[in-house]
Amino acid sequence: LLKPAPELTGTENYGFTNVPPDGDGVVRRAYLLYRNHISLPFRALVDGPGTMQSLMPLAEPFLIHFTGGPGFVPTCRVRDLFDEAKAAARCGSLENRYVILSPAGNAVSGATLYRTPVGFLSRGELLGNILLTAEAGAPYRPVGGALLFLSVLLHTVLLGYVVLYRRGRTQLAFLLVALSGEAILSLLSMRVASLQLPLIPFLLATVLGYFAFLWLKFSEGEAQRWRAEQQTRNVREVEELKSNFLSLMSHDLKTPIAKVQALTERLNREAADLTPEQRGMLASISKSNDELGHYILSILNFQRIEGKEIKLNRQSRDVNLLAEEVVDRLRDLAHERGVELKLELEPMFPLEMDEQLIRQVLNNLIDNAIKYNGAGTVVAITTRDLGPELEVSVADNGVGLSEAQKARLFTKFSRADKGMAERVKGTGLGLYLAKYFIELHGGTIEVSSEEGKGTEFRFRLPINGA
Question: Angle, nearest 10°, between helix axes 319-337 and 355-371?
Answer without folding.
Answer: 30
